[in-house]
Design a protein that fits this description.
Length: 244
DNA sequence: CGCCAGGGCCATA
DNA sequence: TATGGCCATGGC
């Protein structure tokens, strides 16, 4: 009840969180956030960005696209290249010894599905996630980024930003990935927020809503809710529990 | 200089 | 099941 001002009481996740996303939307607008010309470029970026700044990923992707030739950077191109060459091309993104075999494995999986995102979009969500998670180097976040931005299936994509953001807002954040994903998706499903002005993110259905939600969280965490937060200029300052 | 970035795997207890 | 070490580069 009477807590020290610096440590507020945590609260259960509620629709106030969806309202906070709407505030971010009014601030940042619609974000074209996962820039990729093709589905395969998106998937490759998902591997390359693991614990890595996006600016470094851009350097690696530019090398790959240049090596493949304009418009020819595909999964089928990658799998017949020399892994040692791939390592050099993706060097700027770091962890290249790990990421190179991961790119090959993911490319092979995409080839097994005919390099066809329409097939990915029509398979069951559970099967799609199970298959992706079985690939070495594809954990829950990489998996769901592909599900949401390449397969266009509805998942609430969670990354370290999402956890930090929820924590800063004062919410109890479940430990496990699936537990938090379940909570957030339950919340969204209960409100169908894209139908409600108070929760409007400018999206008319679940997938674009979830894409925008994740984009807004990342944008906000990169510009305001940093590890060392910039609270004075934060659009959520009035409602945030952790403001400094 | 040190810190950090749109994780995931593996060994250990 | 839950931490901790490890992987590597470029920007600041």
């Amino acid at each position: 009840m009477n807590k020290p001002t610096s440590s507020s009481e945590s609260k259960a996740l509620d629709r106030g969180f969806l309202h906070s996303l709407a505030v971010l939307y009014s601030m940042y607008g619609s974000l074209e956030w996962w820039p990729a010309e093709t589905a395969w470029e998106m998937m490759a970026g998902a591997i390359l960005t693991q614990n890595t700044a996006w600016s470094n990923v851009e350097l690696a992707l530019a090398n790959l696209k240049e090596a493949a030739g304009f418009g020819n950077f595909t999964a089928s191109w990658l799998v017949q290249e020399d892994p040692e060459d791939i390592k050099e091309w993706i060097r700027p993104s770091g962890f290249f010894n790990q990421k190179t075999p991961r790119l090959f494995d993911l490319a092979q999986w995409f080839l097994d599905h005919g390099e066809d995102t329409k097939k990915l979009s029509t398979m069951s969500l559970d099967l799609l996630r199970t298959e992706l998670l079985s690939i070495n180097g594809v954990g829950p976040e990489t998996c769901d980024s592909i599900v949401l931005y390449a397969a266009h299936q509805p998942v609430f994509l969670i990354d370290s930003y999402t956890r930090r953001f929820l924590g800063r807002l004062g919410y109890v954040v479940p430990r496990g990935y699936e537990a938090l994903r379940s909570d957030l998706e339950t919340l969204v499903r209960a409100e169908e927020p894209w139908l409600d002005g108070d929760f409007n993110l400018g999206a008319a259905s679940a997938v674009p809503y979830l894409q925008e939600a994740h984009a807004l969280i990342v944008e906000h965490c990169k510009t305001h809710c940093l590890k060392k937060p910039l609270c004075p200029d934060c659009p959520l300052r009035d409602s945030c529990e952790q403001r400094i």
